[in-house]
Amino acid sequence: MLEDTRIPDHFVEQAGWCEDLGSPFTAALLRRFAEDFDAGGPTHDLCKDWSGSPRKDALGLRIAGALHHAVLTGDAPDLAATYPAARYDWSMDDIWAIASAWLSAHMEHVRSFIKSPPQTNETRRCIALLPGFLHLADKYRMPMNLLELGASAGLNQNWDRYAYDGGTWQRVSTSNVTISTHWRGPEPAHLDTAPVIASRAACDLNPIDVSDEAAYLRLKSYVWPDQTERLSRLDAAAALARRTGVHVDQADAADWLARMLSERPQGELTVIYHSVFLVYPPRDVIAQIMQMIEQAGAGASANAPVAWLCFEPESLFGGSRASPRMQTRLKTWPDGENLLFNESNGHVTEVDSLLG
């Protein structure tokens, strides 16, 4: 069992991150979790015996997700009436009076809910990856064989079908999904390039099928309730995924990637890509995946090139382990090109572009 102080400290720390990422509602809710834990309330009863790291496990977001899930499914109508979707002038005093009572009354249900880690399938990360994809399309001018790791619901498989708005630049699309952010620095090159996608494949240990309404509401529950733009974008991206038949294989990433790389086609560019995925596997598995990609690259040819495009923590590339920054990097074979495109935060609310 953890020392009690580690859990409320985590709630307060996570609240600060939520505040910085534009969710005052979730920040306020997490601070109530901390106060309630210290007071011996239902939050204390719920997670006092948590055996893992509350920070790594995102314990606070699991509990917040359980409450939002109850709101979205209609299981807590009184709570729903106090949430941001119903009240723009929400009051955390009013919310917590109902939320704490609901947690007490549904303790076993919430304990079961928080066993699973949060998944949000943040589609905004596609705008950080976009410059890399466009660079590849212009450089190789051949069909792409896309392989996504840790794909969650697979919404980022449709990156080429989304519209993009960086403020100073735009990329149009026929879909109604628009990915926007505050973009600083050079705009992406080759904005008019049309990538040719030969195939799309993806894997996840626990994939979410957005055509299953219950599974989709679970995914949606982890999006912060006061972030209406994110919620609307998720709805639109999920609707597009249903229309385009997005599929994610349930598989271990290392095993799946080994098989897919062994079958990679000639005459196509194989692109391995992922976003905020390599923070989750054990260190030995991370090393195994990276080595596997390097080995595939060593065997690449002009007729079957390999690219590795990722949006991951700076620390993965030798930077400070304390840095909160994420970086978009691209490595290609057989030419060995290695590029750093941009830096951002986990939700890509702003992008510092380093390369057009």
Automatic annotation (TrEMBL):
One family name in Pfam for this protein: DUF2332
InterPro entries cross-referenced by the UniProt entry: UCP012608 (IPR011200)
Protein name: DUF2332 domain-containing protein
